[in-house]
């Protein structure tokens, strides 16, 4: 089961218009997000590093580490994103262990991409 499938019917989404900032570098990270609809750009140091589409995961590092965010997320299009706080994340991992694997795969892919840029 993918993040798209898990959250496609979630009613507790947040909406953002194209150009809206979802979160910014150095903000406290208490939630991660799954893109339910639309597209979101992820930037690091002002540079576009990834555009997420439906089912994309963002903000996971700050949630897991309890550290300030390292990037900025900006709605590329009008979008809906589902917030996931630590309590919900823990519940999701217990109920759907594959969700944890998906989040780890996202982290691993982003680390590899960052390595390539260094």
In CATH, what is the homologous superfamily?
Answer: Jelly Rolls
The profile of the biggest β sheet is:
4 strands, antiparallel
Domain count: 1
The rough form would be described as globular
CATH topology: Jelly Rolls
CATH architecture assignment: Sandwich
N to C succession of SSEs: HEEEEEEHEEHH
Q: Give the tally of β-strands.
A: 8
Helical percent range?
Answer: 25-40%
Strand content: 25-35%
Radius of gyration: 13 Å
Unreliable segments of 5+ consecutive residues: none
Structure classification: alpha+beta
Q: Mean pLDDT across all residues, rounded?
A: 90
Figure out the total of helices: 4
Strand order of the largest sheet: 1-8-3-6
CATH structural class: Mainly Beta
Distance separating the two termini: 33 Å
Please tag this protein with its features:
globular; 118 residues; 36% helix; 8 strands; 31% strand; alpha+beta; 4 helices; four-stranded antiparallel beta sheet; Jelly Rolls
Structure, described:
It is a single chain. The mean pLDDT is 90. Strands 1-8-3-6 form a 4-stranded antiparallel β-sheet. Strands 2-7-4-5 form a 4-stranded antiparallel β-sheet, with no helix packed on it. A hairpin with a 2-residue loop joins strand 4 and strand 5. Helix content is 36%, strand content 31%. The protein has a single domain, classed as Jelly Rolls. It is globular and about 35 Å long. The longest helix is centred in the C-terminal third of the chain and has 21 residues, at 97-117. The protein has 118 residues and is of the alpha+beta class. It has helices spanning 3-7, 60-65, 86-95, 97-117; strands at 14-16, 21-23, 31-37, 40-44, 47-52, 57-58, 72-75, 79-85. Helix 3 (86-95) crosses helix 4 (97-117).
